[in-house]
Design goal:
heterodimer; A: 7-stranded mixed sheet; 4-stranded antiparallel sheet; 11 strands; B: mainly beta; 6-stranded mixed sheet; 0% helix
Amino acid sequence: DAGVTQSPTHLIKTRGQQVTLRCSPISGHKSVSWYQQVLGQGPQFIFQYYEKEERGRGNFPDRFSARQFPNYSSELNVNALLLGDSALYLCASSLREGVKYNEQFFGPGTRLTVL
Amino acid sequence: AQKITQTQPGMFVQEKEAVTLDCTYDTSDPSYGLFWYKQPSSGEMIFLIYQGSYDQQNATEGRYSLNFQKARKSANLVISASQLGDSAMYFCAMREARTTSGTYKYIFGTGTRLKVLA
């Protein structure tokens, strides 16, 4: 079975532009989470979606938004890009909520560079 | 607030030897989960092992074991018989208890870069 897929792999934007990142979860997984990983740091939680509803939000500005589609794929949008938004953006999927432990499976990430 | 601390920025280990990567955490919730992930240079996070706060025994997964000391709030990863392919970044993470919105959040440490020497 295919794992979590993300597109594009790499992206270069300039300050002020907008970007959309895409994620397809593992088949059957209904929960998708987004993380930002700045170089040299651990991932920071941005959003979690479950059954197309936002179920969690980290400490990120309103420039960051996301949505989940009926097929459980997800998009992360970032408006008015800043240099500090340069990072690896990771998507993770999990089967559902409420299980004993909620193992997440990560995609390969999208590396965003803002010039 | 919940926090994960990894105090070893980098570690070296000789091939076939064991290595321990340290992780301490801070939480006031009685129910939590602790995870270890491996991140090769390709960037993908690979799940290694999980320990629940109520689990009585230390978790083991093949060559990976988790030395869980609840009173000390530590969850160290032990890799036995290191292999060259184990060279990577290793992250300790904690799953927060369910929030008021009914979801979980994960907190990650800053990671430890492990280099296995031939």
